[in-house]
Design a protein that fits this description.
GO terms for molecular function: oxidoreductase activity. This protein is α/β, with parallel strands linked by helices. The chain is built from four helices and four strands, in the order E-H-E-H-E-H-H-E. It has a domain of 84 residues. The longest helix is centred in the last third of the chain and has 28 residues.
């Protein structure tokens, strides 16, 4: 059957294409798409995402963000700040809010979960 999947990104069209591709592989997987800019205010972004994930069973938290080197080179200070928020700050806020849901699964050995962070920093 597989895991249900929540995917976050800035581009709704790409999110929808990814959701469609997942459904083509396994139509039983519930895919939740959330349009969010992780480089914004971490508190507001986290609240928005957590609200949309309410009631969604979380098995694995996989945090990944990528940033273009060209964008960073064109406006170093602002781009570096956005990259830092996207790759580190907002991930930490989300982890703090979502981890309790994941940790609650540990009472049932068949429902364990995990956390993985990757970033472009």
């Amino acid at each position: 059957m597989g895991f249900n999947v929540a995917i976050l990104g800035q581009n709704e069209e790409r999110l929808n294409k990814t959701a469609t591709a997942i459904h083509e592989i396994n139509s039983q997987i519930l895919v939740k798409t959330i349009v969010a800019d992780l480089s914004g205010d971490a508190t507001q972004v986290t609240e928005q995402i957590v609200r949309q994930l309410e009631g969604f069973d979380i098995s694995i938290l996989y945090f990944n963000a990528g940033y273009s080197v060209m964008e960073l080179a064109s406006n170093q200070s602002e781009a570096a700040l956005r990259m830092f928020r996207s790759n580190i700050v907002t991930h930490q806020y989300l982890f703090q809010e979502l981890y309790p849901k994941l940790a609650a699964r540990k009472t049932d050995a068949s429902r364990r979960g995990g956390v993985l962070f990757t970033a472009s920093v």
